[in-house]
Amino acid sequence: MAVPALPADDSTGNDWTAAKVNAIYDHLQWHRDTAPVFKGQAYARLGSNPDPTDVLTATSTMFGFGNAGSFENTPVINIGGWTVQGSDANPESLVVPESGIYVVSVFNDWESNSSGYRSTQIILNGSSVSGGRVLGAPSPSGSTMQNLTTVLDLAANDELDVSANQGSGSTLTATVYLTAHWIRST
């Protein structure tokens, strides 16, 4: 079975069509169906739905399931008992169902703007994850996409979030996806 292709950026830079979202979903579904040892997976778009979330310049913004109009407070793919914890006042976290080793990935598609910097990081129980941050300059043209993946030893009931920051000098939108794959028990 061939790995489904992920969508390429289109000429508008950050216009996420249903076809692009479905291509990402198909890619994750392929991974789930072909993983040699599979027990649990969560995948979700964070922030407001269907619109991206505004990220103020030089201000860390927490993405979660509790933002107004969010993704119905549940992961898109939920295998293995993933839950969401928190309140709408504080972005809700993805709660780890079982202790073990997990591969956690974040994809962030920033609005087009060539100024400043972009930063995306994984947050575990309210703190930054070592090795779970990507920082870089924006694309000189088109949208800036950041992707980071890390392996974490997580305990049952640990909470995962994503934080983003940017220094463009103006408010930018960001569309963030979070995936977590259970690998093995610890």
With helices defined by DSSP (H or I, 4 residues minimum), what is the helix count?
Answer: 1
Largest sheet: 6 strands, antiparallel
CATH classification, class level:
Mainly Beta
SSE pattern, N- to C-terminal: HEEEEEEEEEEEE
CATH level-two architecture: Sandwich
Distance between the termini: 30 Å
Low-confidence stretches: 66-73
CA gyration radius, whole angstroms: 16 Å
Can you offer a commentary on this structure?
9% of the residues lie in helices and 46% in strands. It is mainly β. The model is unreliable at 66-73 (pLDDT under 50). 34% of the residues are buried. It is built from 1 helix and 12 strands; from the N terminus they run H-E-E-E-E-E-E-E-E-E-E-E-E. The chain is globular, with a radius of gyration of 16 Å. The strands form 2 sheets. Strands 1, 2, 4, 7, 10 and 12 form a 6-stranded antiparallel sheet that branches. Strands 3, 5, 6, 8, 9 and 11 form a 6-stranded antiparallel sheet that branches. It has a single domain, classed as Sandwich (Jelly Rolls).
Q: What keywords describe this structure?
A:
46% strand, Jelly Rolls, 6-stranded antiparallel sheet, mainly beta, single chain, 12 strands, 186 residues
Provide a brief overview of the structure.
The chain has 186 residues and is mainly beta.
